[in-house]
Automatic annotation (TrEMBL):
Enzyme class: isomerase
Record has Glycosyltransferase as a keyword: no
Organism: Buttiauxella ferragutiae ATCC 51602
Family the entry assigns: Belongs to the archaeal-type GPI family.
Signal peptide span: none
Keyword match Mitochondrion: no
Protein name as catalogued: glucose-6-phosphate isomerase
Domain of life: Bacteria
Domain Glucose-6-phosphate isomerase prokaryote: 29-178
InterPro entries named among the record's database cross-references: G6P_isomerase_prok, GPI/OXD, RmlC-like_jellyroll, RmlC_Cupin_sf
Molecular functions per Gene Ontology: glucose-6-phosphate isomerase activity
Amino acid sequence: MNISVNMPPCVAFHNGHFTAEDLITKVTRSGDLAGVFYDTDAWRALPPETAIYQVEMLKSPQGEGELYAGTTHLNPGRIGDEFYMTRGHFHQRREQGEVYFGLRGTGLLLLQDEQGKARFEQVSPGSVHIIPGATAHRLINTGTEVLSALAVWPTIAGHDYAALAQGFALRVVLQGGKIHGKEVQNG
């Protein structure tokens, strides 16, 4: 008896890229991140086409019980003294969680609840991050190479960027050659 076996998409754990064809890919450039970095003069000085991060996702059916799988590739760099980071978001459906797996590079995952309480988790190859519902999340690359993290989340979760119009309560900066978390007033 012959067994029919389908080869599923694969992710290369050393770099986070999928082997699947027909991926959804989105590049976020510095010009797309107005209001995200606190040093607006340094942000304006960076060419707006500068790639900050790329997300590649497997196509997935939409609906209850369906999942996305995707990888964020966050470039190293700083705008002023603030490290490159993703925009960050809550989910539109607040009860939906997400899981991140660190694949390469080093950085931080910034987590913030709806009351503004924020904390960091170290992201590195092999790290696993359970992001509960009602928690905003943002990746920050504090290293010198691309930070890649694989994520799995419900297709129905959606993204709510507007809830963070004032920004996150914490920022990560390089001061005196050291990485510091910094509390921010009104983003």
